[in-house]
Amino acid sequence: MSLSFLDIAIILAYVAGILFLGFYIARKASKNLQSYFLGGNKLKWYYLGLSNASGMFDISGTMWTVSILFVYGLKSAWIPWLWPLWNQVFIFVYLAIWLRRSNVMTGAEWITFRFGDGRGAKLSHIIVVTFAVISVIGFIAYFFEGIGKYCTAILPFDLSMNIAGWYITSEQSYALLVCFLTTLYTVKGGMYSVVATEVLQFFIMTISCFVIGYIAYTTVTPEQINAVIPAGWKDLFFGWELGLDWTKTALPAVNGKIEQDGFGFFGILFMMMIFKGIFASIAGPVPSYDMQRLLSARTPSEAAKLSFTTIWVMYMPRYLMVASFTVLALAYLTPELGLEGDQMDFEKIMPLAINKFVPVGFKGLLLAGFLSAFMGTFSAFINSAPAYIVNDIYKKYIRPDASDTTLIRMSIGSSILLVVVGVIFGFYASSLNQLTLWLTSALYGGYVAANLLKWIWWRFTGHGYFYGMLFGLIASTTKLFFFPEYVDIYIFPIIFAFSLLGCIIGTYTVPLKNREAVKEFYRKTRPWGFWGPIRREVMAENPSFVPNQDLGRDAFNILVGIAWQFAQVVIPIYFMLRESYELMVWSVVLITTTWLLKKYWWDRLGEADKEWEQTASS
């Protein structure tokens, strides 16, 4: 990529500014663990929401989203439901409130809050800590490799070197440098530094989105797009089959990409996404930086507001950028991409568009923003995992009486240790690719069933949680090694069923010994679900207790929230394609759903805080 001196200067100045900001704010984090990992629960919800949005604005995800919009057209708006995309809706509607009511510091500590201190609870506690730490190590290795490739692509300096016979490539040198600098301000400032730097990064990326949008809108005409896309590319809805055929276009090789992805039978794929999405969303956030921000909120209502803000401020700017890069590539890069034939690399679409269409100065700003997004996500992971090591292992089992100064030093040391281990994995990422896939697939595959039941079933025990996670891990690992040819989403019901079996077996092999802990969880969290016996006991002990009767309202708000979020995905795409009728329809949907959420969700958040305060005082 060709860069001017001005672009390079902007990138270097931006990185220097991020480091200065991180160090400047670091003094607030040195009081105790609560300040270091959760910002002392004093950070305002809109700062946390902007930080969360920035952490999700990564270059890898943006490149992937550009590639699927290029290939699948408007139907690509459904594909992120594979994750599922709308788990954030479940979180802001009710899960953030339930989670923040616990007053804990980490996801592992939350497990103790849910299941008590028995043997089953300890087993569950250990498996969650293991999940969190190994996930972070795997992601650090992933970031190490990705940051190196990105820096090599945008910066002209060759940093390869030979030290005592050990050859370090330019990619590895860049990755070491960026990881070192990011670790420096993160371990110094904890959550304060993470949030402050990510808020700045969010504003830079948002400005970049509108600049790219202006360039694309004024450069590309609808006729140019229509000349290269196949029939059905602009259709949002679908039948059993995808209905896209690139054969008669200038890019017939795109059909191979569709076949490779396994998305040809789109109707079946959609049903599987709905099935997985509901259960995975009710399971709640995984114990990583996303959960850490929710626990950092000042009150339950603010935890909900920060998740709402993540969607509200991120989706339209990001998808404006995605749509802009896509139409620029369709209009001007089709001949260049067509020359690659079957070897076409769809993830190169966005870098090619940046190099060709972004003007001097803004190119440096945009690239610096993506680089800092890498740094922001990396720093969030560095901040989340040491909380599990220090709070859930060292403080809980080794030195319960350790001073705040000792605990913060341990946090800094464990952060550095995790980064070193992750970087070592990153150096050997190519040879450890299968291991990395096994870690991420197995751990996340076994997560859903156990974490669904922990919220909604009174009889569910720590043993059930442990064996549910274990059975899910076994099922996911078996799929990875013995059935790698099958698309993961189609195998999910089998993995879910096997994990659910483990939950049932583990739950009924031992009696419910920690009934008082379960009652305390129900009294503080106030979840809806299958809590009949526990609800009756709590109400008998405290006649003033009012059980949660909001299932119907929450379900309504979730449906409205999914439509609200989806409108923010498709509106920027229709805007860039000049599809005025569809743009008007979805704008009405956005306005209507915003009003409904305001009336039936936002205006009632105060009730959540009142219930929380009453529970705390009783």
Structural account:
This protein has 618 residues and is an all-alpha fold. It has a domain at 5-386: Amino acid/polyamine transporter I, CATH 1.20.1740. It has 26 helices and 2 strands. The chain has helices at 5-25, 33-38, 45-55, 59-72, 87-100, 107-115, 119-154, 170-219, 222-226, 254-261, 266-283, 289-296, 300-332, 334-338, 349-357, 362-398, 404-427, 433-445, 448-456, 462-482, 488-508, 515-525, 532-541, 551-577, 580-600, 605-617, and strands spanning 161-163, 166-168. Strands 1-2 form a two-stranded antiparallel ribbon. The longest helix has 50 residues, at 170-219. The radius of gyration is 24 Å and the shape is globular.
List the helices and strands and how they pair.
Blueprint lengths: L4 H21 L7 H6 L6 H11 L3 H14 L14 H14 L6 H9 L3 H36 L6 E3 L2 E3 L1 H50 L2 H5 L27 H8 L4 H18 L5 H8 L3 H33 L1 H5 L10 H9 L4 H37 L5 H24 L5 H13 L2 H9 L5 H21 L5 H21 L6 H11 L6 H10 L9 H27 L2 H21 L4 H13 L1
Antiparallel strand pairs: 1-2
Provide tags for this entry.
Amino acid/polyamine transporter I, single chain, 26 helices, 73% helix, mainly alpha
CATH class of one domain: Mainly Alpha
Q: What summary fits the major beta sheet?
A: 2 strands, antiparallel
Stretches where pLDDT is under 50 for at least 5 consecutive residues are none
SSE class: mainly alpha
Task: Report the order of strands and helices.
Answer: HHHHHHHEEHHHHHHHHHHHHHHHHHHH
Strand order in the sheet with the most strands: 1-2
CATH topology of one domain: Amino acid/polyamine transporter I
Mean pLDDT: 82
For the record, give the distance between the C-alpha atoms at the N and C termini, rounded to a whole number: 63 Å
Shape: globular
Q: What is the annotated CATH architecture of one domain?
A: Up-down Bundle
Number of beta-strand segments: 2
Residue fraction in strands: under 5%
- Share of helical residues: over 70%
How many DSSP helices?
A: 26
Radius of gyration: 24 Å
